[in-house]
Amino acid sequence: MTTQHLIDQIQIKKSFLCVGLDVDLTKIPKHLLETEDPIFEFNKAIIDATHDLAVSYKPNTAFYEAYGIKGWLSLEKTIRYINENYPNIFTISDAKRGDIGNTSSMYAKAFFEDLNFDSVTVAPYMGKDSVEPFLAFENKHTIMLALTSNEGAFDFQTLNVNGTELYKQVLETSKTWKNSHNLMYVVGATKAEYFTEIRKIVPDSFLLVPGVGAQGGSLSEVCKYGMNTNVGLLINSSRAIIYASNGVDFAEKARAEALLMQQEMQAILG
How many Å apart are CA 270 and CA 264, to the nearest integer? Predict the structure, then answer.
């Protein structure tokens, strides 16, 4: 999917909502546990209920890998279902891969070719040869961790190195890599005060923003400091939407939560 196609979908839907499909079998409605593939059935219901309100879906692969081969098959069925039924949706594999050379190339092949995701999250700690193999894929996007919303982010990301915070150096350096136009960045919503500085470095890039909702991030604050002329934001919400109910009405309740976010986004877009 091209960046322009994503921008078009944001304009059409008046939404920049990304729904995180982080499925925990201990939290989904119990009646689904009786089905052949509870994870897929849960995802399918959530997707069918929210596809007109969201521009993106983001399965976190850990929630599938934890269940072994069955979980991976559920992930494969989920991405195939989205691609076949809602091809205008931007898909993100939240895999946070980070290795070098041929290993990175194989990770990229797995997510971009075999599973046919539009994008994948990566960790940049090992430098350009851990990220460039992902960037080589045309019309695929690499979403690099820049400034995350977890407590441990302050261990390294905001350290002052030679007069500049490390996350800023990472952003600046990433712009020099081959095919860097395919880069997007992860920036946590709980760090809204940093968005102004980030936009000085990457004014045109899309930012994937977790942390709105259950983690306490403010949508209005993120938009105030992080939005650009093409919106440039994908606001992720997982638990607040997909676990709005654990009853038979779970999909209906998920839609209601997604609608609240979409309406707030529509008001911001004007």
Answer: 10
Inter-CA distances, 147 with 74, 88, 103, 208, Å: 30, 28, 25, 11
Residues of the chain with pLDDT under 50: none
Per-residue pLDDT at 213: 62
3-state SS record for 28-71? CCHHHHHCCCHHHHHHHHHHHHHCCCCCEEECECHHHHCCHHHH
CA-CA distance, 198 to 259, in Å (whole number)?
29
Question: 63: number of CA atoms within 13 Å, CB side?
Answer: 22
Instruction: Name 148's Cβ contacts closer than 8 Å, sequence gap at least 6.
Output: 157, 186, 187, 188
- Whether residue 79 contacts residue 43, with contact meaning beta carbons closer than 8 Å, is answered with no
Q: In angstroms, rounded to a whole number, what is the distance separating the alpha carbons of residues 55 and 147?
A: 23
pLDDT value at position 184? 98
Which tens digits make up the pLDDT trace of 4-40? Answer: 999 999 999 999 999 999 999 999 999 999 999 999 9
pLDDT tens digits, 244-265 = 999 999 999 999 999 999 999 9
- Cα–Cα dist 16/10, whole Å: 6
* DSSP state at residue 212: B
Residues classed as catalytic: 96
Question: What CA–CA distance (Å, rounded) separates 146 from 124?
Answer: 8
